[in-house]
Design goal:
Order of helices and strands: HHHHHEEEHEHEHHEHEHH
Largest sheet: 5 strands, parallel
Oligomer: single chain
Helix content: 55-70%
Radius of gyration: 23 Å
Number of strands: 7
Number of helices: 12
Distance between the termini: 56 Å
Length: 324
């Protein structure tokens, strides 16, 4: 099941990449003449239209989602440094779009230079759009197991000593899966995974366990706690002994909808067989959450991202210095 879920995730990414590339190609075709006039090019040129199309998709997608998250900061349970970074990214991309528009009206060559130098950002925006589409496709094709011998619920931020809204939905979804399994598997277990963050007063696992017992009526004897992890990867690795072994399969891993795709990849990479189930996420929270997922993926592959960015800047420099 773990390998199958990973293949499903990879298939979702490939289909999403095809959709984003196809849409960008169609937009490029439509923008050839307008871009030539806007940038004062001697004739419609495909590469410049492609650059403008990528910039448009990135600005509306990545920039729009980040800017929306900036507007939602006051509604978050906790504002972490990554939330501020996402908000600044949205504001920065908005200001960059304004700067390019102003530059095009004053000196089109300057607008062309800014477009080129921001090439890594446009590529990152296309990648983020691909990830967003992949998350949607993966959720559409994922199905929870009919019965689960073990339900693993991944932690998230607390509100004081209690679970926050995001984590509450994960816990409720996990309890729902557990109850649906009891008829066929009377010994089904729930594992709650999450340590104590630097700004938290207790471990996430202990808060989840209390919510399961006092609010959802789950017997404490049916709950196992993993209280040392601080990341999704650690959630899975440190829970391995609790979710594998005789009588522990099949496994259902419960997280938020936007987090399911990356969790499926980490689960398969850890060699743990299981199916990832997404809990409902408030629509107003999803755009920023997907940007956070994109940043997490980039952080996991930071050296690849840095190498690609340097290559793109080198390409931009060659175009700027090598052509009139």
């Amino acid at each position: 099941m773990g390998v199958r879920d990973r293949i499903r995730a990879l298939r979702a990414v490939l289909w999403s990449a095809c959709i984003v590339v196809g849409f960008t190609a169609l937009l490029t075709r439509a923008l050839r003449r307008p871009v030539a006039a806007w940038l004062e090019l001697p004739a419609p040129q495909g590469p410049w239209a492609l650059l403008a199309a990528a910039a448009l998709v990135a600005t509306l997608g990545l920039g729009g989602a980040s800017l929306w998250h900036a507007l939602m900061l006051r509604r978050l349970v906790r504002v972490r440094p990554v939330d501020v970074a996402i908000a600044l990214l949205g504001i920065g991309m908005l200001l960059l779009a304004v700067a390019i528009g102003v530059a095009a009206g004053i000196e089109p060559a300057l607008a062309r230079a800014i477009l080129l130098l921001a090439l890594p950002l446009w590529v990152a925006g296309l990648a983020a759009a691909t990830l967003a589409m992949a998350i949607f496709l993966h959720l559409r094709r994922s199905r929870p197991p009919a019965t689960a011998a073990t339900v693993l619920i991944l932690g998230a931020g607390l509100r004081g000593r209690e679970v926050g809204p995001l984590l509450r939905r994960r816990v409720e979804r996990g309890a729902q899966l557990w109850r649906a399994s009891l008829a066929a598997r009377p010994g089904a277990r729930i594992v709650v995974a999450g340590g104590q963050g630097p700004d938290e007063v207790r471990t996430e696992a202990s808060a989840m366990a209390d919510h399961l017992v006092h609010q959802l009526g789950v017997p404490r004897a049916a709950i196992d706690l993993e209280e040392a992890s601080t990341t999704t990867r650690e959630n899975l690795e440190l829970s391995r002994a609790l979710v594998t072994g005789p009588g522990r399969a099949p496994l259902a891993v419960v997280t938020s909808e936007y987090h399911a795709l990356r969790t499926a990849g980490l689960l398969a990479r850890a060699g743990i067989a299981g199916t990832v189930v997404g809990a409902w996420t408030r629509p107003s929270y999803r755009p920023g959450a997907i940007v956070r997922e994109a940043l997490a993926v980039a952080a996991e592959r930071r050296w690849w991202c840095l190498g690609i960015a340097l290559a793109l800047w080198a390409l931009a420099g060659w175009v700027l210095l090598g052509r009139p």
